[in-house]
Model the fold of this input.
Amino acid sequence: GVVNIVTGYGEEAGVALAGHTDIDHLTFTGSAATGRAVMKAAAEHIKPVLLELGGKSPLIVFADADLDLVIREAIKGIVTNCGQMCSAGSRILVMDSVKDALLEKLVAAIKQLHIGPGIESPDVGPLVSAVQYGRVTGHIDIATSEGAHILYGGSRPAHLPQGYFIEPTLFDNVVPDMYIAQREVFGPVLSILTFHDEAEALRIANQVPYGLVAGIFTQDISRALRLATRIQAGQIFINEFYTGDEETPFGGYGQSGFGREKGLAALDHYTQIKNVAIRLH
Done:
């Protein structure tokens, strides 16, 4: 048919699809580890692959930013799907002069979020499985052991003794080389890092193996565009944070994969360029 759905685990199904003689191209969305396995299997058969993998996306907040706007975008970026999406905004890089003001507003806003099952139309739903719940709590434990400080959350909501629910978790006292600042959590866990100037913000933003999305919050459009050209990420959003629409290309740098989904750029991956030459004389 036009669409065939075959269920299976990413690594096993990906390897099988890569070896199928009727499949000319693979597109994979998932973890970097499984992406490597799919790419390796495709290489055995010389098949092109498009990979959309993980992320550790920053929101960069300068002193002249609209903090109320930042709070709305930051919360949307980390609690949508309970943080279980590759484009989650899991790092806030905030200029040191406005850090305290930002944190006061952010903690107050997080406290207002409703956590619950989907039938309640909550702001924050459950994690997808017991395995994922264990992974997220494991990341939280590592972060605290390395010296990061929990400003809010970090545990199961008291009113939800069953299910894979976890409070949106906000970490302060995070430095760029910490585990929590480098690894994708895939849950509602947000780290706060500070910078003093534009150069330091750029260095911290690029100091991770991923490069999927970044948000820049400032009233200085020249500074925003200057940073946008230097941040190693496939999507840059200025004074907002989301994953883009169907019309715009989506993809990453580094461990976030390669190739682009969505937009006209995506069509290039599903076509071949052919040269046809005709002798005229």
Notes: The mean pLDDT is 95. The CA atoms of residues 158 and 167 lie 9 Å apart. The chain has two domains: 10-52+256-270, 57-238.
